[in-house]
Design brief:
Structural class: alpha+beta
Oligomer: single chain
CATH architecture of the largest domain: 3-Layer(aba) Sandwich
Radius of gyration: 50 Å
Number of strands: 69
Distance between the termini: 20 Å
Number of helices: 19
């Protein structure tokens, strides 16, 4: 709550009808480039005003400026119609630190009560006096109330030096942050900075549906080292650099099931973590976002909105094709055939050469009628050629024609040149994955290579070669290079000569790297005649019987046993074929699908709940359902072949439901809905929410929904009767009882009691009844003053209220003593001064007397005044407050206090030539400076008024100034009383010095008055504008002064005492001055040297110019209501031209975006320095106007 000036304000006529009062606001945000100048200025001012520097320079990201202009009191008299309060508030934050500034222009506050200032004492107990301060809302631990807050004296705050060491400026820090954003705020900031993922995730590889698919789909690599977290990761980034992470359950109940969302699910990554160049960005963006939102805060849903999980809905397994043994082929469409060519052949060509796989064969052991694969080479686009060759120990690898140490690899892939990823799944096995998603696995088995090609669906209808034409139709797999198709029923011999040999590579198309002395022809043998399948025969019955027993009818096994005359070769062919077929079949087994995609379950307390989950299997496998988690007590489970149901009676206990469905091949699907608990009372209705911010269980597995309450109820669960009085911040008139109405009365369900005595209205708004407006004047004989709820009588000057509190009695100002120099004559309502014989009235001061014939020379012994009396004889006289001594020459101070010649009510303090009055505790001095008025209960004595702004001196007066440096006081302590004491002490010192010296006034300046009775008063002592000022020492100030001659002494009324004489006066009376001010004089210097017409001040002590600069940001509080600042973007962006304000009174204005406060006839600041207001065009004259 920020309250720059919270007061009862007229919000009707002044705003709506007359347009006299206005409120403006503007929001500046770093999201708006046009706000940059204001944000920079706010940052600069904040850094300067901080009493304790922050760890790093403050940089504002959001600023709210609110300006209140010409606010009138709620019930104002006609003679106050032109009095309005103008002030401004600025709220500044960077998301970590927050500050506010209250600023009040000089004379900007013109009322604190709806009455003229002279009668404020009658409103000291009034209800609803303005409050100034702030409260952080943390149970009162961080708050601040201005010293004058809640009193009529708060109006003077615009003339008080604030805690920013500038008049009318206050600066507060509103939080106690340690300098770090909360994890929630960091998550929110991260969320706002991220792009919409929908434009990028559609190009990512969909997640495999189960862990088994992720392991066998070579487009993904599974990292087992993150256990117990098990995730697969796409080998290559998308074209935009994104990566796909897919995570799977490691719980035994749901092992291998894909996890989706914030319950451990994987996510899309803005930066592909396996790409070296993107790893740093992945850490700073993706990892940081997960840490801030999911680990350090409860906003994991925000993370997944920017990094969504894939649910495998678009996943399609890659198609496998393999070749092995005495070359046998399984095409991409599943066609199985044998081709025993000897040479190098194109296995697969995709998209007319974008990708190509070639394989080389050699003679197998035996009688030379069989061949096996001995090498393979693959290339995609601009990637390097990867070549794998069979050797005596296993395999060797070439990449780009260079030997590659594949033995250093593991089952985790390594990306080479960003175009191909390679790995070693196991010994004598090599995997290559290309960026298109095609993978090739080559393995050495029993002296031969087996090759497995896996192609994603994007290559369907775009392949040719010995692995066939992939279009789900095996009938056209024997497509030749010239476009003809061999029948799928063709014999092995026809396949050999009319299909297989036609795919032999030539010198232009070969991908192989040859050793010295080798070439394409080294491996090519077109005349080789193998054994054909239809000519299958064994050299002897023993081998045949062994083969038949080992092969169990497997044709390929029998063929390889016969062609190589080695049963173990056939057995290896059978085993490898069985493994590949099993893995391919298992890869194509999709897990069950939940038909009921239940993401949330709503549970209402004391109501019956039933949840049914239905699933189906894409492969028509048999399904088994299981329910795990923290089940409700007495829950009932019911299973069918394709569903499971859970029923229970709703309570407020924590529950978790985890549904697992398993097919007969072990593939599992997992579903864990969020539980939304509805626990509303009194017929409240739960509000559906995707957020878990109200969870009372510390987990986003269960949310407690917010309640929408019926009229008259409130609380988290609508469990409480709505207190409309509290909800409306006590809407009744101050002091009027607010009565809350029972439900179904809503937020407006309150009633105000009767207005206080002396007021009229409905209790919500009460107007004071003006008894003085009646024809009888309230019965007062002179002045009737309307007061809150009543009235009081008062008297004009010179009269005192009678004991009957109605009549007025004349005050005899001449008793016991007057302020006349000689004689006093009482009159009705006043008094008249006259002079003794030989004296006449001083035309410049009717209380003072001047001799008719002053002495014309300095040769006399009078201490004060010398005049020519009877017979022109020189005689002596004294100034007011002094008594002529027995010697007839000297003057002695009259102690008015000791002789009962004072008029003080309470305490009297004698001074040279006069006296001062003060009051005992519980009283304060009235405006007449002699009468004491009792303080109200809890009322504190008003703080001293600020010192007035110095007059503008003439050039002659300015050049006669001296500078006095005091130690033991800061600027805020220099008040009007202090300045009056200081001026009085200086005046007395100058009077005494000049009374004893004959050099104060030169002959040319003398007129009729003799020097010996010249009286200097505080009226002749002046400060230069801009003084006092601070030095580098916080408790040291400098005061620049000059002293005018009294009227009639100098020929020029603006002439001033010579600076050298003034310097001597202060030096000689230094001790007296220090005693009067309770300070120490540390230096005395002349302000301006004679050698220069505009010399700068001396540099002793040095001034802190940075502190003396006046940068102001104006703050305020709501008029008539508490200003509760909610940090939200106000959405105001239109710009309008501002116009100067034309009324004579001082108001906030704008000039070209400067932070200044102007009036029509000049600057508020007498030095024309920068003013107090943040007043650019948007802040004061555009955007939204609140009435």
């Amino acid at each position: 709550m920020l309250a720059p000036y919270w007061s009862l304000t007229d919000t009707d006529d002044s705003f709506v009808i007359q347009g006299f009062s206005k409120v403006y606001y503007h929001v500046y945000s770093d999201s708006d480039p046009s706000s940059t100048p204001m944000l920079k200025r706010a940052s600069s001012d904040t850094n300067k005003l901080l009493s304790t520097p922050l760890p790093t320079a403050f940089r504002a990201s959001w600023v709210l400026v609110v300006t209140w202009k010409n606010l009138r009191p709620y019930q104002y008299p006609v003679n106050m119609a032109n009095q309005g309060n103008t002030f401004q508030l600025v709220l500044i934050t960077d998301g970590v630190y927050s500050f506010t500034m209250y600023n009040y222009p000089n004379n900007g506050l013109q009322w604190s009560a709806p009455i003229q200032r002279m009668y404020y004492r009658y409103y000291s107990k009034a209800r609803g006096l303005p409050v100034v301060g702030w409260n952080a809302g943390d149970k009162g631990e961080r708050k601040y109330n201005m010293p004058r807050s809640g009193t009529v004296n708060i109006e003077t705050i615009d003339g008080i030096r604030g805690n920013a060491d500038m008049v009318g400026k206050w600066f507060f820090r509103l939080e106690d942050s340690l300098g770090k954003l909360s994890a929630r705020q960091e998550c929110i900031d991260w969320f706002k900075a991220q792009p919409d993922p929908r434009f990028y995730t559609e190009y990512l590889e969909p997640c495999p549906c189960i862990l088994r698919q992720a392991r066998w789909d070579e487009r993904f690599t599974v990292n087992w080292r993150d256990w117990p977290r098990m995730c697969g990761y796409a080998q290559f980034p998308s074209s935009a650099g994104w990566g796909q992470e897919c995570c799977y359950s490691t719980n035994w109940q749901s092992w291998g099931a894909l996890l989706v969302g914030s319950h451990g699910g994987g996510s899309a990554h803005r930066y592909h973590k396996l790409t070296k160049e993107l790893r740093a960005k992945y850490d700073s963006s993706d990892v940081r976002g997960y840490q801030k939102c999911c680990v350090n805060s409860d906003l994991c849903d925000l993370y997944y909105r920017r990094r969504p999980s894939d649910d495998c809905g678009d996943y399609v397994v890659p198609e496998w094709s393999w070749l092995w043994g005495d070359p046998h082929f399984v095409t991409l469409d599943g066609k199985n055939y044998t081709f025993n060519g000897l040479g190098e052949y194109i296995m697969a060509d995709a998209r007319n050469g974008l990708f190509q796989l070639q394989a080389r064969t050699k003679l197998a052991k035996g009688d030379g009628t069989a061949t096996v694969f001995s090498a393979a080479a693959a290339k995609e686009g601009n990637s390097s050629v990867v070549q794998v060759e069979l050797n005596d120990t296993g395999i060797s690898v070439l990449v780009g024609g260079e030997s590659f140490n594949y033995t250093s690899l593991s089952n985790e892939s390594v990306t080479l040149n960003g175009s191909v990823a390679v790995a070693k799944p196991d010994n004598n096995s090599f995997l290559m994955v290309f960026s298109s998603g095609i993978s090739v696995t080559v393995k050495a088995v029993s002296g031969a290579l087996s090759i497995v090609l896996a192609a994603p669906k994007s290559f369907k209808n775009q392949t040719k070669g010995l692995l066939g034409t992939w279009n789900d139709d095996p009938e056209d797999d024997f497509l030749t290079p010239n476009g003809t198709v061999l029948p799928s029923s063709a014999k092995s011999k026809d396949i050999h000569y009319n299909f297989g040999l036609l795919w032999q590579v030539d010198n232009k198309s070969t991908l192989f790297t040859y050793k010295p002395g080798e070439s394409l022809k080294t491996f090519e043998n077109t005349s080789f005649v193998p054994m054909f399948l239809e000519d299958l025969s064994f050299p002897n019955d023993t081998l045949r019987k062994q083969a038949e027993e080992a092969c169990q009818g497997d044709v390929n096994c029998l063929f390889d046993s016969a062609s190589t005359k080695d049963v173990s070769m056939g057995a290896s062919t059978k085993a490898l074929s069985s493994t590949l077929e099993e893995e391919s079949s298992s890869l194509k087994n999709y897990p069950p699908l939940f038909v009921t995609r239940l993401s949330q379950v709503n549970v209402t307390v004391n109501q019956s709940i039933s949840v049914t989950v239905v699933a189906e299997d894409p492969n028509n496998d048999t399904l088994v359902f299981s329910v795990f988690g923290v089940l409700p007590r007495a829950a009932i489970l019911q299973n069918t072949s394709n569903s499971v149901s859970v029923s229970w009676n709703g309570t407020n206990e924590q529950i978790e439901l985890e549904f697992v469905v398993t097919d007969d091949q072990g593939a599992k699907a997992f579903l864990r809905p969020i539980i939304n608990l509805c626990a509303c009372h009194n017929d409240g209705v739960c509000l559906q929410s995707a957020s878990n911010k109200n969870s009372t269980y510390g987990s986003n597995k269960m949310n407690v929904l917010e309640c929408g309450c019926l009229n008259g109820y409130t609380g988290t669960f609508c469990e409480s009767d709505l207190d409309a009085c509290e909800a409306n911040l006590n809407p009744c008139y101050p002091g009027v009882k607010c009565i809350d109405l029972p439900p179904p009365a809503n937020i407006s369900g309150y009633k105000c009691g009767p207005c206080p005595s002396g007021f009229t209205g409905d209790g919500s708004k009460c107007r004071d009844f003006d008894e003085c407006s009646l024809g009888s004047n309230g019965g007062c004989s002179q002045v009737c003053i309307n007061t809150p709820g009543s009235f009081t009588c008062d008297c004009t000057k010179g009269y005192l209220l009678n004991i009957d509190q109605k009549k007025c009695d004349d005050v005899d100002e001449c008793i016991p003593v007057s302020d006349c120099m000689h004689k006093c004559e009482n009159t009705n309502g006043g008094y008249h001064c006259s002079c003794d014989n030989f004296f006449k009235m001083d035309p410049s001061n009717p209380k003072n007397c001047l001799p008719d014939s002053p002495c014309q020379n300095d040769k006399h012994s009078c201490q004060h005044i010398c005049y020519l009396g009877l017979n022109k004889v020189q005689q002596c006289a004294c100034r007011r407050g002094y008594l002529l001594g027995g010697d007839g020459n000297t003057c002695k101070d009259i102690d008015e206090c000791a002789t009962n010649k004072d008029r003080c009510n309470h305490k009297c303090s004698n001074t040279e030539g006069s006296y001062t009055c003060s009051c005992v505790d519980g009283f304060r001095l009235d405006a007449d400076n002699v009468t004491c008025i009792g303080l109200d209960k809890d009322e504190k004595p008003p703080p001293p008024a600020p010192a007035p702004t110095p007059r503008i001196p003439s050039l002659i007066e300015k050049r006669q100034a001296i500078i006095i440096a005091f130690k033991g006081m800061n600027l805020s302590q220099w008040t009007l009383p202090v300045e009056q004491v200081f001026k009085g002490a200086v005046a007395d010192s100058v009077t005494n010095f000049c009374g004893e010296s004959k050099h104060c006034i030169t002959t040319r300046l003398r007129k009729r008055r003799a020097l010996d009775y010249v009286l200097f008063t505080s009226d002749q002592v002046h400060l230069l504008p801009g003084y006092p000022e601070r030095t580098t020492d916080l408790f040291q100030i400098r005061v620049a002064i000059y002293v005018q001659f009294p009227p009639g002494v100098a020929t020029d009324s603006a002439s001033a005492l010579d600076k050298n004489i003034l310097l001597t006066v202060i030096k000689t009376s230094r001790e007296k001055l220090e005693k009067a001010l309770n300070m120490t004089v540390v230096s005395l210097t002349i302000a301006f040297l004679d050698s220069s017409t505009e010399s700068s001040f001396t540099e002793t002590p040095k001034i802190d110019h940075e502190i003396s600069k006046r940068y102001f940001i104006i703050g305020g509080a709501t008029a008539g209501a508490i200003l509760i600042i909610i940090l939200c973007v106000l959405g105001c962006r239109r710009n309008c031209n501002s116009k100067r304000v034309t009324p004579e009174k001082r108001v906030a204005n704008n000039e070209d975006g400067d932070f200044e406060l102007h009036r029509i006839k000049g600057h508020f600041d007498d030095h024309q320095e920068e003013g107090k207001f943040y007043t650019n065009k948007q802040a004061l004259h555009t955007d939204k106007e609140a009435i």
